[in-house]
Design goal:
This protein is α+β, with helices and mostly antiparallel strands and about 210 residues long. The protein has helices spanning about 1-15, 20-35, 35-40, 105-115, 190; strands spanning about 40-50, 55-60, 65-70, 75-80, 85-90, 95-100, 125-130, 135-140, 155-160, 165-175, 175-185, 205. It has one domain: Lipoprotein localisation LolA/LolB/LppX (outer membrane lipoprotein receptor (LolB), chain A, Clam). Helix content is about 20%, strand content about 45%. It has a 12-stranded mixed beta sheet. Strand 3 and strand 4 (about 75-80) form a beta hairpin. The protein is elongated. Residues about 1-20 have low confidence and may be disordered.
Length: about 210
């Protein structure tokens, strides 16, 4: 019976996808990504920068709060930002820096790149290149009518069949290759809140402007 139910569930997934155009599937993916506004979202963003190499960034957002862990050239820095205060921890230096929020350039950059995955059919032609039992794989090419100079010429996007959630997206933006992956929802408050008690015996430097 259990095996039958698994087969039946797979059949329903196949029927749901039958007859859908790439544009319809990608539109559903875009709508699914909006869950992050209410439930919070976590994702990994890899950026391959010429000369500097690859920087990996794990981003968690919930409301106005965010936590970003960045790894590059063997160094890891974690930043918490609640829109008022920004706390940055460097493991190598054993130091926490507290300062007034700058609305987080890294968080904004992550939001901008995640925006690539929303409304991807606007100004692009989407083609289903392949699929597996679990995911669809699309290639989106920029249309000639798309006059946005900053828009990538091509994006490779894969979508999970069971949830219509973005599986992975890669594109080159201003000479930097960007990959979005490992996306999940249901971020908890403690996941994005800074707790000084978790860092005993660490040097704390407070750079906040005193009123």
């Amino acid at each position: 019976m259990k095996k039958f139910l698994v087969v039946l569930a797979a059949a329903f997934v196949a029927l749901a996808a039958w007859g859908q155009t790439p544009e319809e599937i990608l539109q559903k993916m875009s709508e699914t990504m909006d869950r992050g506004k209410k439930e919070g979202m976590a994702m990994t963003m890899d950026m391959k920068v010429p000369i500097l190499g690859t920087m990996s960034m794990r981003v968690l957002n919930l409301g106005q709060k965010s936590r970003i862990s960045t790894s590059m050239m063997g160094r890891t820095v974690t930043m918490w930002d609640d829109g008022v205060t920004m706390c940055t921890y460097s493991a190598e230096e054993g130091e926490i820096t507290i300062e007034d929020s700058k609305t987080g350039s890294s968080s904004s950059e992550a939001d901008d790149n995640l925006g690539l995955a929303k409304g991807v059919t606007d100004g692009y032609d989407a083609v289903l290149k392949s699929e597996t039992a679990d995911a669809w794989f699309f290639e989106c090419k920029k249309q000639k009518s798309n006059k946005d100079k900053d828009a990538p010429k091509k994006m490779d996007i894969s979508v999970w069949k069971d949830s219509y959630c973005l599986r992975e997206m890669s594109a080159s933006v201003k000479g930097v290759k960007v990959v979005l992956r490992d996306i999940s929802f249901d971020v908890k408050e403690e996941d994005v809140s800074f707790d000084i008690s978790q860092f005993p015996d660490v040097k704390v430097t407070d750079k906040r402007v005193q009123e």
